[in-house]
Write a structure and sequence with these properties.
The complex is a heterodimer of chains A (about 325) and B (about 270). In chain A, about 75% of the residues lie in helices and about 0% in strands. Chain A has 13 helices and two strands. Chain A has a two-stranded antiparallel sheet. The longest helix of chain A is centred in the N-terminal third of the chain and has 47 residues. In chain B, helix 3 packs parallel to helix 4. The two termini of chain B are about 20 Å apart. The chains are: A mainly alpha (about 325), B alpha/beta (about 270). Chains A and B meet through helix 6 of A and strand 7 and helix 7 of B.
């Protein structure tokens, strides 16, 4: 580095004749300034943390009247959801099961595809193509969910009826296929990061022991990156379970649990779709509205648990790559 | 459009001299909301000084607001209940009903479906989940896919009240969130049954006869078609002649008013 660039990096205002010690005034200002800065940053960070806590508190408080009146047992075990009937029934079991159905089925589609795509992007394809393909995959996440919903209703639903002879095209399978596509960018992106963070040494060690490329991928790379891959799957599940517009349009919204249980060609209804679809008509202060908030509490708890699980595996993934 | 402008001009010439800065508070039904909105927009064009607000919170809220004097006009998709009327009178308000339009809900099936007529009781049993196959109502052996509007829509409210009565809908009923979507689902699903406002009928879905009456503007306006109901405006006493409230409540009688009612998918009362 020559002397010209050195002065540039130090900046033209650097005055070498200035005394090293600060005056008491400058010292005090600096002291106050650093504390004010810290306090400001703390406040800004604190606001978002506080927001999460306040949301939780708000939702729990709004659901309290319902839980006191009807009890949590019936809410979690009854299948009857008839909020506007003369004798209303608020059994959220079908809604909770519906949410789990579509998210788990979406993962069944998305995980194999997502993990294979991540391995392909990190280990097989050339760097140039990877640099084009990864942003393109991430564009999937930028498509508005209502656009996916229209595709589900107008294209996928008639196609399923015609191709498979389903009596209804808006069903659990339709919703989970769309959710799988929506969860893919998350899964591919996070899993690819985890797999490529493993480093060359591991792969070269495996090759030097005589393993083929397939053996290296399946027996070394994927097991070594399992924490990151699990975190990717959990993040994908959070994406699927919290999605509203697509399930509201694609799942059919029938309050039932499929019978037999593996029949995904039947309509189901999720918690998110119920909240979105019914909040508008539920009168303020009524049991229906606070029942919807109780559904919200269940949804929040589920995403919190998933969030903690994903944090756990992400931190494990970081530790694992840190050691190697 | 030109007709509307000409009549707007005539209308404003007739009564324009009386206009001054005024407010008009309208509150109530989500079903009548689109009509009230369209009328309000028209009035704002004719009387730029007029300040109209339209709130859509539900018929019950409209009745309460009129009784409390919080609004000039309550829009309601049903007649006032006994209790609401008594509460209003106790508050010194005397509610008077004006019917502005008829609301009809047409039951539709896939065009390939041979079933062309059902009774109200049959439709109720289909939506309640008691009848699950078209063969039970004289059609081919094919499971019925039951499609309903979401429970917060006015169309659902009409159907629920006039067809379902007190009966809750079955657990297999699918819910969609707009008239075009209900139309699209029925159009593409062979075994489907659904219901839409009369403005959404076309050749791609088949409207069936209910209790041997086919839905049309005439049968809905005359009340022969069973799934039809009047939509109301309620005022405190009959409005003072020439007042803004009176003009608003009588607006449905004008040609422009009827065109707006039709444009919003409802049926004008007048049969010409």
């Amino acid at each position: 580095m020559d002397s010209k660039s050195l002065t540039l990096t130090l900046g033209p205002s650097t005055d070498r004749r200035r005394p090293l010690a600060l005056t008491p005034g400058e010292d005090l200002l600096g002291f106050i300034g650093s504390y004010l800065g810290r306090a400001l940053l703390f406040l800004i960070t604190g606001t978002s943390v506080l927001a999460v806590l306040l949301i939780l508190l708000f939702v729990v408080l709004r659901s309290a009247p319902f839980l006191q009146q009807f009890g949590i047992g019936e809410f979690l075990t009854s299948r009857a959801w008839r909020p506007t009937a003369d004798e209303p029934a608020f059994g959220a079991l079908t809604l909770i099961v519906g949410s789990l159905y579509v998210s788990v089925a979406a993962l069944l589609f998305a995980v194999p595809v997502g993990v294979l795509a991540a391995v392909f992007l990190s280990d097989i394809v050339s760097w140039k193509i990877r640099n084009v393909a990864k942003p393109v995959v991430e564009i999937l996440a930028a498509i508005p969910s209502v656009a996916y919903g229209f595709f589900a209703v107008l294209v996928l639903a008639p196609w399923m009826q015609g191709r498979f002879g389903f009596s209804t095209g808006t069903n659990a399978l339709n919703a989970s296929m769309i959710l799988a596509v929506m969860a893919l960018p998350t899964i591919i992106s996070v899993a690819e990061d985890a797999i490529s963070a493993l480093g060359r040494e591991l792969r070269e060690a495996s090759y030097s022991l005589g393993a083929t490329r397939l053996e290296t991928m399946v027996k070394v790379v994927i097991p070594a990156a399992h924490s990151g891959i699990i975190a990717a799957v959990v993040l994908g599940m959070m994406r699927a379970i919290g999605e509203t517009m697509v399930v509201w349009m694609a799942s059919g919204n029938a309050t039932q649990i499929p019978h037999p249980w593996w029949d995904l060609s039947q309509s189901i209804r999720t918690m998110t779709a119920t909240i979105a679809g019914e909040m508008g008509e539920a009168p303020e202060g009524g049991a229906h509205r606070s029942a919807l908030f109780a559904v919200g509490v269940v949804l929040l708890l589920m995403t919190f648990v998933l969030n903690i699980v994903s944090e756990y595996f992400l931190s494990r993934a970081k530790k694992a790559t840190g050691k190697s | 459009m030109q007709k509307m402008l000409v009549s707007a001009l005539l209308f404003s010439l007739l009564v324009g001299g009386l206009a001054q800065a005024q407010t008009l508070q309208i509150e109530g039904s989500t079903t009548v909301g689109p009509i009230a909105d369209a009328f309000a927009e028209y009035f704002k064009r004719v009387y730029p000084d007029l300040n109209i607000t339209v709130k859509k919170t539900g018929s019950g809220d409209g009745a309460a607001a009129l009784a409390d004097g919080r609004c000039d006009i309550a829009t309601m998709s049903r007649f006032m209940k006994d209790k609401e009327f008594k509460d209003a009178v106790a508050n010194g308000t005397y509610p008077v009903a004006h019917v502005v339009a008829m609301d009809g809900v047409c039951v539709v099936v896939h065009p390939s479906n041979p079933v062309g007529a059902l009774t109200t009781a049959q439709i109720r049993d289909i939506y309640a989940g008691k009848i699950t196959n078209w063969s039970q109502v004289g059609g081919p052996s094919m499971p019925i896919v039951v499609i309903s509007r979401d429970t917060s829509s006015g169309t659902y409210e009409t159907f629920d009240e006039l067809v379902m009565g007190k009966q809750p809908m079955g657990s297999g009923v699918e819910y969609v969130n707009a008239n075009p979507q209900a139309h699209a689902r029925v159009k593409t699903t062979q075994g489907a049954i659904g219901y839409v406002g009369i403005g959404f009928l076309d050749r791609e879905v088949k409207a069936i006869m209910v209790d041997q009456v086919a839905p049309s503007r005439q049968t809905i306006a005359s009340g022969v078609y069973p799934v039809a109901r009047p939509l109301f405006l309620f005022t405190n006493g009959y409005p003072k002649l020439g007042s803004m409230v009176h003009r608003f409540c009588a607006f449905y009688l004008t040609e422009a008013g009827q065109e707006l009612v039709e444009a919003k998918g409802f049926v004008p009362l007048t049969a010409y």
